[in-house]
Amino acid sequence: MLNIRSLLQKGGDNMKRLLIFLMAMGLITSSIVPALAASSDTQVVQFQILAIDELEANADPLMLTIDTATAGSSALTPAIDASTTYALTTNGTNRKITGQITTGGDMPANTTLEVQLVAPTGGSSAGYQFLTSGSAADLVTTITQ
Fold first, then answer.
1. How confident is the model at residue 70 (pLDDT cuts 50, 70, 90)?
2. Which ranges of the chain would DSSP assign to H, the alpha helix?
3. What DSSP assignment string belongs to 74-95?
4. How far apart are CA 37 and CA 45, in angstroms?
C-alpha cells in the first residue's frame, strides 16, 4: 500500500514516484469517466394508438321458426332468440352498434325483424328496432372505452 505522507516527508525519488502515481491515476480516471458518461443517453420514443373497435357474437342466432298464430286474427306468434350474446372492445368514445339486413333483401310480406341489444356499461340501448335492407338502425349508442 502506498503511504503518501511518508513519500512527501522523504522527498527525492519518492516525490517522483508520487508524481508518477498521481499522473497515472489522472489518466485512468480521465479514461474511465468518459466511458461511463457514454453509457447513458436520452431517447425520444413516439407511438400512436389507432382506433380499435371489435365486436364478436357468441354464435349465429338459431333458426327463427314461426309456426303458430292466434285464431281469428292475422297476428303470428313472434319467434324469439335470447341466447345470442356479444362481446365488445373499443378504445374510442361515442361509438355505436347498428343493424341492417344485408343479404336476401327485406323480410317477406307481413313480417318484420326486430332486434334489441343490451348495452354495455356506459352505453345506451335503443330498445327494439326494426331492421330493413334500406338503412342501418342504431341499436346501441354512446359506447365508450
1. confident
2. 4-10, 13-37
3. SPBPPP------EEEEESSSSE
4. 21
Alpha-carbon distances of 61 from 24, 80, 90, 100, 102, rounded to whole Å? 84, 10, 24, 15, 15
Q: How far apart are CA 67 and CA 33, in angstroms?
A: 88
C-alpha–C-alpha distance, residues 105 and 88, integer Å = 27
Could you tell me the pTM of the whole model? 0.61
Angle at 5 between CA 4 and CA 8, to 5 degrees: 85
pLDDT in tens, 33-57: 655 555 778 889 998 989 898 888 8
> What residue type is assigned to position 125 of the chain?
S
Can you tell me the mean pLDDT for 49-68? Answer: 81
